[in-house]
Design a protein that fits this description.
alpha/beta, ten-stranded mixed β-sheet, transmembrane, transferase
Length: 254
């Protein structure tokens, strides 16, 4: 029997092909599901409304501000922040149920191991082999207001790790992956420019891209994920290069 209530929050836009898988993985665990949609033109809203009546259509202020808005609508003891292209696997679902059934939870937040799934393969190495902080006590938590790569800052306390995988179906296809990478690179450029970070020129932008590939493919053993691991390492390298090129162009007002 659950001892702690759980709010699940997600932000959406045109996710009709993926959001139901996400919602199905949490619907019987959540005490409430909060959805903030930024103008879907497909069936995303209708699908979400099958699982919750707490669906709000709003503008798009950036990832950090939008997630902070969603967080402010939650009321549970704990909050699970999940993306529309993600889903809990059965092991993680059971681990979450067991956690919420404890009399006292000593941790203030939990990281969830990512199961990035691309082109039919769940990656186990490279940058994908990490755990993301997505489960946290609501009281005292807040999001950074960054345009992209926002971070939740939980209340003070120990951070644990939940068993299982947070499956992440990040790309619909290669074209979608290219578009997403370009969007994230440009948002990263603007974020760094706003924060006063310097590019230090195009040569360093190139070196950063090379280093990113080396770090992901060799140091973090992305090569063990085969051809998909190579594609992922190259994609991250391109994002890094493009992000600093964009920053350089912003610095020079070109």
């Amino acid at each position: 029997m659950k001892k702690h209530s759980l709010s699940v929050m997600l932000i959406t836009k045109n996710e009709e092909d993926r959001v139901e898988r996400c919602l199905m993985s949490v619907t019987d665990i959540a005490d409430e599901i909060i959805v903030l949609d930024s103008g879907s033109t497909d069936n995303t809203l209708a699908i979400c409304q099958k699982y919750t009546d707490k669906v709000t259509v709003t503008d798009w202020p950036g990832f950090g501000k939008q997630k902070q808005r969603a967080l402010e609508q939650t009321s549970g003891d704990w909050v699970l922040s999940i993306d529309a292209d993600e889903a809990l696997d059965e092991t993680m679902r059971n681990a979450l149920i067991a956690l919420l059934s404890q009399e006292e939870i000593k941790e203030s937040a939990f990281c969830l191991p990512w199961g990035v799934t691309l082109y039919g393969k769940t990656l186990k190495h490279g940058r994908s082999a990490r755990a993301v902080l997505r489960l946290f006590k609501r009281d005292g938590a807040r999001y950074t207001l960054d345009e992209v790569h926002e971070t939740v800052i939980p209340a003070a306390g120990n951070i644990g790790k939940l068993k299982g995988l947070l499956l992440h179906y990040t790309h619909r296809d290669y074209g979608h992956g290219l578009n997403k990478a370009a969007q994230y690179a440009w948002l990263g450029s603007q974020k760094y420019f706003r924060k006063g970070k310097k590019s230090h020129g195009l040569t360093l932008a190139l070196l950063r891209g090379v280093w990113t590939f080396f770090h992901i493919y060799f140091l973090r053993r992305g090569f063990l994920d085969g051809s998909v691991g190579f594609i992922v390492a190259m994609t991250y390298a391109q994002v890094s290069f493009n992000k600093y090129v964009g920053l350089w162009l912003l610095e020079n007002n070109r």
